[in-house]
Amino acid sequence: MKKVFWVSALCMAVLGAIPSIAQEENSNASPYYYVNVPIERIYPYKKGYVVDYRTGSTGTMAARTYLPLEWFQDRARNETGAPPKGEVIYLGPGSSYPYLTVYYKDGEFSHVRLYLRRERSHISWGSIRMGEDLDSHFEDVSDLKLVF
């Protein structure tokens, strides 16, 4: 009886150690990860995009972020020659709803992609009221922190 107990205990210990050994050998893990967020409404502004997005596990709360226009300039117009921090991708016809994908590298903001409807008549597009000054929200923005 004791022999059966020790053999089964040894088997359980070996089986318990296998997942931790397998995880340590995964040296090909990417330093990037991403977060997808559904866009509630997007507002084009002279200095960038104002994005209202859904938060929470049920997506019922709303938050706002500001994406400077210079993030979306191509390399040819970028003084440093670095890849742009932002990219706009237009969704094709259909029922796809706009969303925002934020990429992080080693835990730091890397870049953002906006997946938007091409039709400006789509309900996801909004407009900023005339005379509303949002310039201060676009100054010295170098990071994108989403609220969840």
Structure notes:
The protein is α+β, with helices and mostly antiparallel strands. Helix content is 16%, strand content 36%. The longest helix has 23 residues, at 2-24.
Write the layout of secondary structure elements.
Blueprint: H1 2-24, E1 32-45, E2 48-55, E3 61-68, E4 86-91, E5 99-105, E6 108-117
Parallel strand pairs: 4-6
Antiparallel strand pairs: 1-2, 1-5, 2-3, 5-6
List keywords for this structure.
148 residues, alpha+beta, six-stranded mixed beta sheet, 6 strands, 36% strand, globular
Whole-angstrom Rg: 23 Å
Sequence stretches where pLDDT stays below 50 over 5 or more residues: none
User: Looking at the structure, what is the overall shape?
Assistant: globular
Strand content: 35-45%
How helix-rich are the residues, as a percent range?
Answer: 10-25%
What's the overall average pLDDT, rounded? 83
Number of helices: 1
Ends apart, CA distance between termini: 54 Å
Count of beta strands: 6
Largest sheet: 6 strands, mixed
